[in-house]
Amino acid sequence: MGPGQIIRKLRQEQGMTLAVLAKKTGLDPGNLSRIERGELNINFVLLEKLSLSLSVSPSIFFDKKISAPKPIDFIKSFRQSAKFINQFNNKTFVIAIGGEVIKDDQFNSIAHDINLLYSMNINIILVYGIRPQIDKKLKEKNIISKLIRNLRITKKETLNEIVEINGAIRIKIEAILSSGILNSPMLNSNIKVSSGNFITARPIGVIDGIDMEFTGQIRKIDTKAISDKLTNKEIVIISPLGYSPIGDIFNLSYEQTAAHIAQSVKAEKLIYYVNSSGILNIHGELIPELTFNKAKNLIEHIENPENAPFISYNDFNILKSSLYAINNKIEKVHLINRNIDGSIIEEIFTDKGSGTILTEYSLENIRSAKESDINQIKNIIKPLEKKGILIDRVNKDINSFYVIEYDHNIIGTIALYQYAETLEVACFAIHDKYQNLGYGKKLLKFCEQKALNLNIKKLFILTTQSEHWFIENDFHLTDKKFIPDERKKIYTAERNSKYFTKRL
């Protein structure tokens, strides 16, 4: 029994709903459900939270009977990741972590993942925040700190505390990244870490009639100095502080700093660790992909992020900074869950990913198939062909095929054949990794639009095992005698396929 199964068993024994446990641990229900199903890994910090909520010892999750992944599964996953390893060689990633990551002792596991990226010849710039640490320090000193639009009014008398906290956090990060931790991926690592005065800042000024004092914004970034450090194979650490030419210190938003840094160095990716799975819809479900326009529209419709059930205030700020990055030629911004161990590895090195990815334009594309697509189409169809669910027609009918792509990878296919005033939907298949994510419905919607463009008002499909899915999508079982005459000529009676139709 794996950790997820143990969690579910304990929760059910205690009569606790998924929603209740999610609320207790600070997870969204959808994410917790994925953990229980074994689809997401969890770090020790989260295991501790779960053990407290379930009133058990954390040791209960480390069952010696838990079976290790089969070697073949590891080999398959490793092979699939090879294309990403080659793609990101000598590219630059900007990784942004909030102060919560340090406060909750989550940086050790993240450091392991950073070490892995570093070993793959990926240039790393790490931008960190210190917001919760500042809150704690000021509270201890009974200093009241006001926020305007979630930005702290930084008074001169608090600067010393902020500088002190920043220095302590930076040293801690450098120490963890520089150490060769025994029995971990950091063992024998030789990471070179560098920080410095890379940011020139100026006062942000007056917001809503209030002087923000020593809260600043970026005026200039020393891009050459950062690039020199990366060329020297150093991980560059950037704090949320900036300096003026006359020696003033300004407190910066780490979210905005990361976006500006990514723009300055023309980063391949900007990655934010967030408090949830990513951006969620109103049902609490993960939105795997957001285009610039959709994200902009989302922000514009949230008048008060504090009242938005599907996005935290901090994540709202990250979303705004992500839009800035996309608008300034950063191709991809990733929002990944800080509570999930290895989330950055899953996001970067798997087709499915783990969080929300923001791009200027959709990564999805439906197009006509080409001869060069045949092998990829066959790989999708082959498992279904072996089960007798589909008949492979791709070699002779490639011109009748369409494919759906995600990030330039073919993830599904379909063939369309016209018979008089009807359109047959055939060879309908989605790669198993992308099933139950809505791609089948998108392909079907594409077919319906194709039919309407041809002034065709009826679709049909012959299926042996997928009847329920088509019924759910408004297809109706129809007598086979109504199959178009031309199609009857090539109908294989031995397959005993059922005939379903849909009026448009």
Question: Radius of gyration from the CA trace?
Answer: 26 Å
Number of domains: 3
Low-confidence stretches: 63-69
CATH topology call of the largest domain: Carbamate kinase
CATH structural class of the largest domain = Alpha Beta
Features:
504 residues; alpha/beta; 434 Repressor (Amino-terminal Domain); Carbamate kinase; Aminopeptidase; 3 domains; 8-stranded mixed beta sheet; 23 strands
Explain what the structure shows:
An 8-stranded mixed sheet has the order 5-10-2-1-13-15-16-14, with helices on both faces. Strands 17-18-19-20-21-23-22 form a 7-stranded mixed sheet. The model is unreliable at 63-69 (pLDDT under 50). The longest helix has 20 residues, at 159-178. It folds into 3 domains: 3-61, 434 Repressor (Amino-terminal Domain) (Orthogonal Bundle), CATH 1.10.260; 71-362, Acetylglutamate kinase-like (Carbamate kinase, 3-Layer(aba) Sandwich), CATH 3.40.1160; 365-503, Gcn5-related N-acetyltransferase (GNAT) (Aminopeptidase). Helix 11 packs parallel to helix 13 (313-327) and helix 12 crosses helix 13 (313-327). The protein starts with a helix and ends with a strand. It has 504 residues and is of the alpha/beta class. The relative contact order is 0.08. The chain is built from 19 helices and 23 strands.
Question: Summed up, what is this model?
Answer:
The protein is an alpha/beta fold. A hairpin with a 2-residue loop joins strand 3 and strand 4 (151-152).
